[in-house]
Amino acid sequence: MDDGAGSGDGDQLSGRRRLLAVLLAMAMFVLVVDTSLMNVSISAVVRDLDTTVSGVQSAIALEALVSAAFILIGSKVGDLIGRKRAYVLGLLGYATGAAAMTFAQSLTAVIVLWAVVGGIGASLLLPAMQSLVHGNFQGAAQKKVYALVGAAAAIAAAVGPLLGGFVTTYLSWRVGFALEVVIIAVVLSGIGLVRDVPYTGPRGVDPIGAVLSVVGMGGIVLGILVWQEGGESVAALLFAGAVALIGLGYWLVQRKRRGAPALMDPDLFRSKVFRLGVTGQMLQQIALGGTMIALPIYLQMVLEYNAMQAGLSLAPLSLSMFAVALLAGKKAGDRRPATIIRWGFALVTIGVAVLVPLVPRAEFGWALLAPLVVAGAGLGLLVSQLNNYTLAPISEERVSEAAGTNSAAGSFGLSFGLAFGGAILLATLSIAFTTMAESSDVLPPADQQHVARVLEDDAEVMSNTQLEELLAGRPPAIREEIVRINTDARPLALQAALLVPILAGLLGLLESFRMMREPDTPPAAQGTTAGLL
């Protein structure tokens, strides 16, 4: 098998190995485009499943959280059962989630099958994919495949809003998820091309570390989601999450001292560059998550855009991120990565900050063009540098574990940004709506109390059209006043939600100055490896 996986001189892609590379890229494309499809389809999903915006937003955040919470465990599972088997199980898990979205009739099915099962599938798939690329290709061919998979992820991020918007508007959001199932089936049809990569390291497990990592990340994000939904025990969940994360750090250090198997090696964090890079990755994803939950809600619930219009409006952000990431990767030259990262966080902060005064004034999505391009350019600079900066000091034999840790931090940041941005939006909406209702000279006291009581139980972003339908039969003056309050309250809520990515960008900017004080580290691992996760 001269053209088989892993054969030949390792410098060229031909025959079966080229097909395998394409299939791996297709798998990555599906992973990335999935979230874009959900973001631009929020209003359609809410309508078809007869649910709420906050419920769908919670499912999106939960999917990112499950992927983050289990990715370190997924990497270890792949070591124990085989990377090829973990790759297949991950694809099947993701296909289960996509199939559930195709036929779902309730939010419960979305949460259980798409967010939880699909999220666990992603946590198995991502680390297994990296190991399989590393083991099935060598030399220049390996670099080409890493570049191809990274390009597939970047293209999915760029065209995802447009593709999702087109499918949702002219066909159905269910068709988009059905197409994901078809693509995964095609990828699985070529599983015979994959050569398994044996694991030669220690095979011990760290169940306590695994539990602490899930409880830590899960407790914090679930606490925010429960707060958003008006539930109880919010403080207990947040406290449990924080204690579990602190306990995880102590546990890993003790396991390392005893020479016992650990979920991850705490010595990775002895490198200040790695610590700064992981923090930067998390802050970048918080900024992205906060932006990508606030803007689609604004476009679909305030401007009442359909999915295609929302996708077109978001295109400047995703396309500029894609273009700048490619350009910066090629033209960075001798510029210090820390300098480029600093400019990235600065542009993200400026771009999102400019959105804040525009939100109550913009009457169409393209009014947001310039700040979205600026913010997208900043994200593109970060994408082009952060992964390689973080993994530069890590040796080749430890790069897989380090990349998994980096990916977990990014996924946790994304889920935190989605959850916290949505929670701030709904909390501000509830406060603003209640305050305006209580100060209204038109609404009688009984209506003011009713509004406050309803919002206390379930604050919800609602378009004026939906609100007018809900208020049908009420006196015209009451109806007009509540619609006016809704019109005035929603921009305030969305402005408050945008403070989440702004704060993350400012913290990232401060972090970049600390990066500038550290000397540049010659890459110890392959730079393209970092770009995958």
Automatic annotation (TrEMBL):
Keywords, sorted A to Z: Membrane, Transmembrane, Transmembrane helix, Transport
Record carries keyword Transmembrane helix: yes
Principal subcellular localisation of the protein: membrane
Subcellular location field: Cell membrane
Membrane-spanning ranges: 20-42, 54-74, 86-105, 111-133, 145-167, 173-195, 207-227, 233-253, 273-298, 310-328, 340-359, 365-387, 408-433, 492-510
Domain (Major facilitator superfamily (MFS) profile) ranges: 20-520
Annotated InterPro entries: MFS, MFS_dom, MFS_trans_sf
CDD domains: MFS_MMR_MDR_like (cd17321)
Record bears the keyword Membrane: yes
Membrane topology: Multi-pass membrane protein
Protein name per Swiss-Prot or TrEMBL: MFS transporter
